[in-house]
């Protein structure tokens, strides 16, 4: 019996589900191993009978919590996919601002009609069994996690930073190119994809378990960033993790 | 037979055997090599504002005026990611070694990177030879080039690797409109005569200029040691526990691993499994790893033997400057400066660190050795490493507790494992990976062997789900095992904590099978709770039959449990047995935390250091003393252990 899988989305852009829908040649092989019972982005059908739930997006209001808890109850395994779900993502940027102002900016005069609270990763609400980090997720990383689950293996999460992959890929360090990067404190697993293309690591996979944040902020400043800019670099993706620490 | 790469060392390039080629003819030579499809031609090219070794499409791409490449040419012999074997599970398990590789020519290697390759040759041939590395090494021709521009981080002139007369097939020196070429090997000479035109003998003047250029390089390093770097091993001798020193220097360490990943002499690796979506075709790969990374020395139970940044930071300097020196006789650093230039907080520069250490010593009035140490080097090679496991079948599965199961396994080819008590095997569950497991059965049991496995990581959890008749892979036996000869005639005091009984059982059963060869036998065995006791029926029965004094204990007994024996940690049993410390050997195995307490209590009973023998657990990934994960200071547990005499490791700080 193929395990039944379902996809769910919360506050986010649904770009991670798009990555799954875009698996191309691997899609058929994947469908040979699992039965998709719910995936709003690609099908109309829906069922609450599923084994593995993939959840995208962060939790941004109280009502989301109930929905997450239902998913947790229905699924044997819950996998958070994408930065918003795994680490709070860029939604957490607003946690540094006044919530009422944020609501006003987004919803204008109808702001009072919308509930909202500080954005958070879904493991702030329910236990999560596995993570596919990234903004968006890396297709290969997603498949690795799926294969691990199919084999009854606990998916491996890298504990080292992006620098490891940059070095293996023989990238010229972003700092050597006059740019500012947070790959030194960001969990690897993306094969340093952004730096491979000549840009920087923004930190979408979140902080490693034990980052030396102060040292890296010092590095950013040593190479010419202002203190405020260095702090913003960390807030872009690490906001939820930082407030939690 | 020695590996050809190794014989380089005996093959000095004769400085008089020098040829001259014009730059135009040199370009034609390289282009002729590129044109030959049977060769893989690699050279130094620009990458952004840096340089890298990469396949050449045209001689014009070559940048022999480079300062340093991002990665050393090591990547062609020990790649970032390498398939050890591929397999197919659709019909049992069939493994295939990777395909043959094309001969390669690497153009533009600086002398320090050549020395680094010679270090790697030594390391990869020690004890057992690594066929993956040497196959590529033998297929390569190295065309070196003397340094024209030196990176500001470079200190190779201090490490004796700025200019060399050996280790290359050909060595170029830029003479303006011509290159001088030193011939280092027959392979080099043949390549030149086959592909190059208008090569002439060097005149005395050319030889003189080339010599002059080489001497200039010797003074080019901007990074300078304040003392002779030969003394680094001496300096390190007393620096391991230097108060605050390592903490201070590593305070800014990001644990990003950059310093070790770019190093031309680093060789630590991880072994991983990769299965395709059919879940039938897969490969086992090895990838670069680094001792600076957080989980490098972490084992499945969660214990991390170098959990902090200062301890990992220190390990790197000790490995390079002391541990490898003690085994191989060289400081495993060639002065390329890549670590320094890649460290964003700028704390990885060995010159700065060792100068600081030197000056602190001088300031504190510590006597510094003035003569470099000379270790006793004796490198032996016995056969090749085999990473492909033997196929084996589970023939019996006995659940022992909720966490542990005893598996009886038989090798499919009918061969005997022929292990010693105390050795271990690497057990593969295909598609998941490989894990080191101690052998639990005595070698006197010949056709099959047993392993007692705790469900902890991915491999062991999956192993528990396998059934009788299912296949596993076995590599080994590995490690030294107990020296049973030295135990003969002695009284034996076994002290086991938790799963530590599993490896001891192989020795206990061996002793019982040869009972008359040994004196009195005591067995102290402790667990957290009664339900965790392993082999309890078996142990009770042998105790009564074979004149063994057996004392079990539990840390606690919950109300629901039944327990009539001792309650307390394992050390509470030691005062309960009377033994003669002079005639008795204590044999210990248990969780890492157990050892120091048990040893302290044995010492109170006047047991001499060399009467205490123990089996240690670490992350033994490759089993053959290469991957680095199980290293305790200079010791590889998988190869030098897992069994150690306390007198030999009591001075080894990371051991207990």
Give the topology:
The complex is a heterodimer of chains A (245) and B (656).
Chain A: E1 4-9, H1 15-21, H2 25-31, E2 35-38, E3 52-56, H3 62-74, E4 77-81, H4 83-87, H5 99-107, E5 130-132, H6 139-150, H7 163-168, H8 193-196, H9 213-222, H10 227-244
Parallel strand pairs in A: 1-2, 1-3, 3-4, 4-5
Chain B: H1 4-7, E1 18-22, H2 23-35, E2 40-47, E3 50-55, E4 81-88, E5 94-96, E6 104-109, H3 111-125, E7 127-129, H4 131-138, E8 140-145, E9 170-174, E10 178-183, H5 186-195, E11 200-201, H6 204-218, H7 232-237, H8 245-250, H9 258-261, E12 269-275, E13 281-288, H10 309-328, H11 338-342, H12 350-363, E14 381-384, E15 390-399, E16 404-411, E17 424-429, E18 433-438, E19 449-454, H13 458-465, E20 471-478, H14 484-487, E21 491-497, H15 501-513, E22 521-527, H16 536-545, E23 548-554, E24 566-567, E25 584-589, H17 594-604, E26 612-615, E27 631-632, E28 635-636, H18 637-640, E29 643-645, H19 646-649
Parallel strand pairs in B: 2-6, 6-8, 7-14, 8-9, 21-22, 21-25, 22-23, 23-24, 25-26
Antiparallel strand pairs in B: 1-10, 1-11, 2-3, 4-5, 4-13, 9-10, 12-13, 15-16, 15-20, 16-19, 17-18, 17-20, 26-29, 27-28
Task: Report on this structure.
The complex is a heterodimer of chains A (245) and B (656). Chain A is of the alpha/beta class and 245 residues long. In chain A, 37% of the residues lie in helices and 9% in strands. In chain A, strand 3, helix 3 and strand 4 (77-81) form a beta-alpha-beta unit. Chain B is 27% helix and 25% strand. In chain B, the strands form 6 sheets. Chain B has an 8-stranded mixed β-sheet with strand order 3-2-6-8-9-10-1-11. In chain B, strands 24-23-22-21-25-26-29 form a 7-stranded mixed β-sheet, with helices on both faces. A 6-stranded antiparallel β-sheet of chain B has the order 18-17-20-15-16-19. Residues 1-12 of chain B have low confidence and may be disordered. The interface between A and B is large, with 38 and 41 residues.
User: How many strands of chain A?
Assistant: 5
CATH T-level fold name of the largest domain in chain A:
Rossmann fold
The gross shape of chain A turns out to be: globular
CATH superfamily of the largest domain in chain A: NADH:ubiquinone oxidoreductase-like, 20kDa subunit
Oligomer: heterodimer
Order of helices and strands of chain A: EHHEEHEHHEHHHHH
How many strands, what sense, and barrel or not for the largest sheet of chain A?
Answer: 5 strands, parallel
**Count of the domains of chain B:** 4
What is the first-to-last residue Cα distance of chain A?
A: 42 Å
Structural class of chain B: alpha/beta
Widest beta sheet: strand line-up of chain A: 2-1-3-4-5
> What's the CATH first level of the largest domain in chain A?
Alpha Beta
Specify the number of helices of chain A.
Answer: 10
């Amino acid at each position: 019996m193929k395990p039944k899988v379902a996809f769910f989305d919360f506050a986010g852009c649904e770009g991670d589900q798009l990555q799954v829908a875009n698996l191309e040649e691997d899609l058929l092989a994947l469908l040979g191993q699992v039965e998709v019972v719910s995936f709003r982005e690609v099908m109309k059908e829906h069922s609450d009978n599923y084994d593995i739930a993939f959840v995208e997006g962060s939790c941004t209001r109280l009502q989301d919590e109930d929905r997450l808890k239902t998913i947790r109850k229905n699924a044997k395994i819950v996998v958070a996919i994408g930065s918003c779900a795994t680490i709070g993502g860029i939604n957490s940027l607003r946690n540094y601002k006044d919530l009422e102002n944020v609501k006003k900016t987004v919803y204008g005069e109808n702001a009072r009609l919308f509930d909202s609270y500080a954005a958070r990763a879904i493991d702030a609400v329910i236990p999560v069994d596995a993570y596919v980090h990234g903004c968006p997720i890396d297709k290969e990383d997603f498949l690795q996690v799926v294969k691990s689950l199919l084999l009854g293996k606990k998916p491996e999460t890298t504990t080292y930073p992006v620098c490891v992959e940059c070095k293996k890929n023989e990238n010229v360090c972003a700092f050597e190119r006059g740019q500012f990067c947070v790959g030194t404190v960001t969990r690897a697993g993306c094969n340093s994809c952004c730096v491979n293309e000549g840009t920087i690591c923004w930190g979408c996979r979140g902080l490693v378990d034990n980052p030396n944040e102060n040292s890296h902020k010092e590095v950013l400043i040593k190479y010419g960033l202002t203190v405020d800019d260095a702090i913003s670099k960390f807030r872009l993706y690490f906001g939820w993790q930082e407030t939690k620490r | 037979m020695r590996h050809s790469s190794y014989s380089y060392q005996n093959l000095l390039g004769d400085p008089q055997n020098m040829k001259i080629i014009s730059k135009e003819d040199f370009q034609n030579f390289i282009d002729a090599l590129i044109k030959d499809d049977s060769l893989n031609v690699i050279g130094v090219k620009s990458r952004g504002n840096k340089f890298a070794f990469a396949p050449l499409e045209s001689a014009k791409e070559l940048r022999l005026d480079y300062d340093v490449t991002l990665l050393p040419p090591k990547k062609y012999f020990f790649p970032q990611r390498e398939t050890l074997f591929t397999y197919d599970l659709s019909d049992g398990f069939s493994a295939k070694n990777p395909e043959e590789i094309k001969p390669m020519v690497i153009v533009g290697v600086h002398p320090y990177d050549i020395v680094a390759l010679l270090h790697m040759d030594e390391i990869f041939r020690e004890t057992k030879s690594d066929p993956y590395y040497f196959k590529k090494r033998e297929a390569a021709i190295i065309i070196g080039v003397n340094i024209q521009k030196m990176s500001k981080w470079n200190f190779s002139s201090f490490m004796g690797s700025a200019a060399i007369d050996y280790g290359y097939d050909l060595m170029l020196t830029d003479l303006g409109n011509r290159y001088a070429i030193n011939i280092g090997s027959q392979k080099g000479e043949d390549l030149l005569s086959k592909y190059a035109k208008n090569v002439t003998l060097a005149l005395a003047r050319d030889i003189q200029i080339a010599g002059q250029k080489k001497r200039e390089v010797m003074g080019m390093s901007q990074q300078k040691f304040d003392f002779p770097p030969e003394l680094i091993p001496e300096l390190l001798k007393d620096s391991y526990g230097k108060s605050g020193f390592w903490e201070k220097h590593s305070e800014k360490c990001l644990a990003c691993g950059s310093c070790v990943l770019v190093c031309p002499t680093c060789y630590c690796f991880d072994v991983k499994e990769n299965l395709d979506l059919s879940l039938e075709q897969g490969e086992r790969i090895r990838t670069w790893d680094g001792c600076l990374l957080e989980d490098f020395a972490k084992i499945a139970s969660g214990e991390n033997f170098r959990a902090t940044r200062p301890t990992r930071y220190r390990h790197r300097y000790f490995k390079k400057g002391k541990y490898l020196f003690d085994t191989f006789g060289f400081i495993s650093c060639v002065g390329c400066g890549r670590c320094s230039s890649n460290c964003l907080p700028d704390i990885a520069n060995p010159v700065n660190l060792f100068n600081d250490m030197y000056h602190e010593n001088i300031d504190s009035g510590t006597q510094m050795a003035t003569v470099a140490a000379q270790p006793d080097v004796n490198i032996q090679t016995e056969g090749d490493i085999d990473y492909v496991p033997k196929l084996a079948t589970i023939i019996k599965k006995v659940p022992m507790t909720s966490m542990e199961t005893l598996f009886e396994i038989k090798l499919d080819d009918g061969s005997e494992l022929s292990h010693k008590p105390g050795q271990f095997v690497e057990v593969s569950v295909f598609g998941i990976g490989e894990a080191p497991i101690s052998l639990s059965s005595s070698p006197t049991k010949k056709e099959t062997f047993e392993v007692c496995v705790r469900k902890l990581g991915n491999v062991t959890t999956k192993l528990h789900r396998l059934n009788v008749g299912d296949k596993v892979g076995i590599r080994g036996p590995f490690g030294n095992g107990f020296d049973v000869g030295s135990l003969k005639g002695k009284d034996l005091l076994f002290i086991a904590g938790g799963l530590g009984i599993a490896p001891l059982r192989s020795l206990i059963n061996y002793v019982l099978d040869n009972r008359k060869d040994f004196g009195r036998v005591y067995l102290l065995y402790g667990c957290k709770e009664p339900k965790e006791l392993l082999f309890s029926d078996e142990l009770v029965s042998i105790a009564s039959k074979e004149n063994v004094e057996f004392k079990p204990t539990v840390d606690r007994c919950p109300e629901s449990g039944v327990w009539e024996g001792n309650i307390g940690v394992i050390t509470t049993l030691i005062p309960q047995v009377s033994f003669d410390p002079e005639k008795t050997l204590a044999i210990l195995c248990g969780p890492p935390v157990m050892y120091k307490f048990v040893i302290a209590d044995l010492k109170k009973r006047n047991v001499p250091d060399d009467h205490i023998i123990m089996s240690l657990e670490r992350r033994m990934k490759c089993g053959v003393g290469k991957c680095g994960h199980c290293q305790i200071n200079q010791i590889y547990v998988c190869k030098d252990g897992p069994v150690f005499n306390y007198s030999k490791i009591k001075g080894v700080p990371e051991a207990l």
